[in-house]
Design a protein that fits this description.
It is globular, with a radius of gyration of 20 Å. With 273 residues, the chain is an alpha/beta fold. 40% of the residues lie in helices and 22% in strands. Helix 6 runs parallel beside helix 7. The structure holds adenosine-5'-triphosphate (ATP) and magnesium ion. Magnesium ion binds next to helix 1. One of its GO terms (molecular function) is ABC-type phosphonate transporter activity. This is Phosphonate ABC transporter ATP-binding protein. Keywords: ATP-binding, Cell inner membrane, Cell membrane, Membrane, Nucleotide-binding, Translocase, Transport. It holds the Pfam family ABC_tran.
Length: 273
């Protein structure tokens, strides 16, 4: 159903994503891993057309979505909802209104201006919040909620679009371990119960292993691994992250990056002595 072929994004002389190629035949929960700057966000953003590809294609059920414009592009974007690390909600607005924003694509300008929503949409929003265990938060201001609750509001907003694919860019990177677990479990349930495809950039390998059926590893813009968590040995993980022997599966991509810079600084100072 999803075919990504030689997808490339060039920024000046740098290839953020370099000929990424993979196929997803059925709804799968996929984790994308790799160190900071590997190209994970750029890949996800090209899938839903927030970023335009320089080259290559994304084909969904036989239809190339890479060059869609205007209404067709917006229609595609509503079919592959995106969730972000920083939630991207309107903090001062109540929870249910934030969720109802998920229907913006199909509402008239006038209805939007006056904040008019059909009763059926409001019912659906509450149902979705209930499913995510936060229905009682519906009337509250969104900024009054915990990070984990806010991310569930963002997931509810995405579900309001009834998307085939949910793209999540580091959905748990700002959350404490307890909330991170709740959010990952919510994404997993949505995948299993609704049969939606989920593609999540994850900043730790152990999260990808625990929740995903398939893991894609990126390094320097390229896909260097594509397989099951079982196939992802510690040796391969080390290659993906370009990390040393002290590599830990629970380390975040940013930690690995920092560690590496510190090691480089040590090597440079050793060379100077
Ligand atoms: N708008 C842009 N302009 C120029 N360079 C960019 C832009 N967006 C991304 N890049 C570069 O492309 C590369 C890949 O960036 P990307 O954000 O996709 O990585 P990432 O794997 O998501 O990293 P992180 O784990 O830090 O989020 C990086 O070198 C980055 O600096
Ligand atoms: Mg990123």
């Amino acid at each position: 159903m999803l075919e990504v072929n030689s997808l490339t994004r060039q920024y000046g002389s740098k290839r953020a994503v370099d000929r990424a190629t993979f196929t997803v035949a059925q709804p799968t929960m996929i984790g994308v891993i790799g160190r900071s700057g590997a190209g994970k966000s750029t890949l996800l953003r090209m899938l839903n057309r927030l970023t335009d590809a320089t080259d290559g294609s994304v084909t969904v059920n036989g239809r190339n979505v890479t060059r869609l414009t205007g209404a067709a592009r917006r229609e595609w974007q509503s079919r592959c909802a995106m969730i972000f690390q920083q939630f991207n909600l309107v903090p001062r607005l109540d929870v249910v209104s934030n969720v109802l924003h998920g229907t913006l694509n199909r509402r008239s300008t006038l209805a939007t201006m006056f904040n008019l929503y059909p009763q059926s949409d409001i019912h659906r929003a509450i149902e979705i919040l209930d499913r995510l265990g936060i229905a009682e938060q519906a009337p509250k201001r969104t900024e009054a909620l915990s990070g984990g609750q806010q991310q569930r509001v963002a997931i509810a907003r995405a579900l309001m679009q009834d998307p085939e694919i949910i793209l999540a860019d580091e959905p748990i990177a700002s959350l404490d371990p307890m909330n991170a677990q709740v959010v990952m479990q919510a994404l997993r349930r949505i995948h299993e119960e609704d049969g939606r495809m989920v593609i999540a950039n994850l900043h730790t390998l152990d999260t990808a292993r625990r929740y995903c059926d398939r893991v894609i590893g990126m390094r320097d813009g390229r896909i260097v691994f594509d397989g099951t968590p079982a196939q992802l040995t510690t040796g391969i993980a080390r290659e993906i992250y370009g990390a040393g022997a002290d590599f830990s599966e629970a380390a975040t991509s940013t930690e690995i990056e920092t560690l590496d810079r510190e090691m480089e600084a040590v090597r440079v100072s050793d060379a100077l002595v």
